[in-house]
Amino acid sequence: MPFSSLTDPVDIARAQAALDAAWEAIRPALDEGHDLQLERERLAYIVANLVMIAIDDEDLARRALQKFRAHA
Q1: What span, in angstroms and rounded, lies between the C-alpha atoms of 12 and 10?
Q2: Which residue has the higher pLDDT, 72 or 53?
Q3: Which helix (H) or strand (E) holds 67?
Q4: In 41-63, which positions are buried (b, 16+ CB within 10 angstroms) versus exposed (e)?
Q5: What does DSSP assign to residue 42?
Q6: Would you give the end-to-end CA distance of the chain in angstroms?
Q7: What SS3 state is found at 52?
Q8: CA distances in angstroms from 54 to 20, 22, 27, 28, 65, listed in the order given
Q9: 65: Cβ–Cβ under 8 A, 6 or more apart, which residues?
């Protein structure tokens, strides 16, 4: 579970909001050859790792997008 390391409800909510926003940006670019569930989970782990350094939900989503795309 990607967000299992998060204990603060605010951090969990931020992470979920950022995951949803980042996924909306990433999903259309993925072709049918990608395992969408696996890619979303990979993005969720990226978000979980960045939640403590991000300023807000938008910053978290932006950072997660950058990292996801850098390691695609």
Answers
A1: 5
A2: 53
A3: helix 57-70
A4: ebbbbbbbebbeebeebeebbbb
A5: H
A6: 21
A7: coil
A8: 16, 14, 22, 25, 13
A9: 22, 25, 26
Where in the chain are the domains? 16-70
| 60-72 residue pLDDT tens | 999 999 999 998 7
Tell me, what amino acid is at 28?
Answer: P
Which pair of structure tokens corresponds to residue 49?
A: 């790792």
18 close to 61: Cβ distance less than 8 angstroms? yes
> 26, 39 in Cβ contact below 8 A?
yes
Tokens for 19? 């995951």
Q: Tokens 């569930």: give the residue.
A: 37
54, two tokens: 């991000």
pTM: 0.91
